[in-house]
Write a structure and sequence with these properties.
Layout: H1 11-28, E1 30-35, H2 40-45, E2 48-50, H3 52-61, E3 66-70, H4 73-82, E4 87-89, H5 105-114, E5 120-123, H6 128-132, E6 136-138, H7 143-149, E7 154-158, H8 161-170, E8 175-178, H9 184-187, H10 191-200, E9 205-208, H11 214-217, E10 222-223, H12 226-235, E11 240-244, H13 248-256, E12 261-263, H14 279-288, H15 297-317
Parallel strand pairs: 1-2, 1-3, 3-4, 5-6, 5-7, 7-8, 9-10, 9-11, 11-12
Bound molecules: 1,3-dihydroxyacetonephosphate (13P) and iron/sulfur cluster.
Residues 72, 97-99, 125, 183-186, 211, 246, 271, 273-274 line the site of iron/sulfur cluster (SF4).
Length: 318
């Protein structure tokens, strides 16, 4: 039977990997960052956990030269745009975001010519090229503030049509022209699953990520980024929560709130790309210094402008 055990389940192998990662980290003076959706064992060895905005900020604030970024490509790329002097490693080259791939420069230019004069807000889940072609970037935790900060009434928002729709509900005086993108993970959740979860846990509050479809958001008690959910739970007197986002989030919520209960409304709430990073790939990444994420200087400088503009909005509104 031992032969059937996968290496991810083999405790001795996992222990050895953790030891190896610790040693490599010391040798190379590297820091490990992980998104809230990563596998539990990856979250456990990370020096810093966070949502997209927190991770971008963290890379800028830490003084390590080598950063292993456990997340998906656009996150590591954003870290590299903000910190070109640092070596940003993405352990699994193929870890991407299908939503980020739903917008490109050509599609964005088509939108711009359809709505001339409307500034472009791009969700951080996008390529460096798209960021470079946009006026300002945003993440799920500051999207409403970013759009509110613009003086124009008409705004182009790419790529997430669900996040665009949510912003529109919060800022009815604006007119938002949305891209056609969506997150396949957050779109997978069905109304029946949410209704069933609410029936099974009548005392639980429903939290959801704004990448979820509008009909689901209409049923929630809280809408926010992954770290926004952590803060909501921390402050809430409630004891039970249905977590309307990727299942990796539940590990962190349980760890930080051992006296509260968390339920996922669906077995299918899994982002396959976020689950690609394993301890084995992190060790491999540090040992071989792969896969470095870099952006060419011309694109990087333009993309940085939309990120810097976003960062300044957050500071003003905080
Ligand atoms: P957060 O910024 O809320 O962590 O979201 C990132 C993401 O990709 C959600 O699917
Ligand atoms: Fe992209 Fe969705 Fe995965 Fe987030 S959960 S990284 S938006 S595919």
């Amino acid at each position: 039977m031992v032969g059937k055990m996968s290496r991810i389940e083999d405790k001795d192998y996992q222990r050895e990997l953790r030891r190896k990662i610790k040693q490599l980290k010391q040798e190379k003076q590297a820091v490990i960052l992980a998104h809230n959706y990563e596998r539990p064992e990856v979250q456990e060895i990370a020096d810093f956990l966070g949502d997209s905005l927190e991770l971008s900020r963290a890379v800028t604030e830490i003084d390590a030269k080598i950063v292993v970024f456990c997340g998906v490509h656009f996150m590591a790329e954003t870290a590299s745009i903000l910190n070109p002097e640092k070596t940003i490693l993405l352990p699994v080259k193929e870890a991407g975001c299908p939503m980020a791939d739903m917008i490109n420069v050509k599609k964005l230019r088509d939108l711009k010519s359809r709505y001339p004069g409307a500034p472009v807000v791009c969700y951080v889940n996008s390529s460096a090229q798209v960021k470079a072609e946009s006026d300002i970037c945003c993440t799920s935790s500051n999207a409403v503030e970013v759009v509110r900060s613009l003086s124009e009434k008409e705004i182009i928002f790419v790529p997430d049509r669900n996040l665009a729709d949510y912003i529109q509900t919060q800022l009815p005086h604006k007119k938002i022209f949305a891209g056609e993108g969506y997150c396949p993970t957050h779109m997978r959740i069905s109304d029946e699953e949410i209704i069933q979860a609410k029936k099974e846990h009548p005392e639980a509050l429903l939290m959801a990520h704004p990448e979820c479809p509008p009909r689901l958001l209409a049923l929630t008690d809280y809408i926010g980024s992954t770290s926004g959910m952590l803060e909501f739970v921390r402050k809430s007197p409630a004891h039970e929560f249905i977590v309307g986002t990727e299942k990796g989030m539940i590990f962190r919520l349980r760890r930080e709130n051992p006296n509260k209960k968390f339920f996922s409304p669906s077995e299918h709430f899994v982002c396959a790309d976020m689950k690609l990073t394993t301890l084995g790939w992190i060790a491999h990444s540090l040992e071989n210094m792969v896969h470095e994420v870099k952006v060419n200087d011309r694109i990087r400088k333009k993309a940085r402008k939309s990120l810097d503009r976003m960062m300044s909005v957050k500071k003003v509104n905080k």
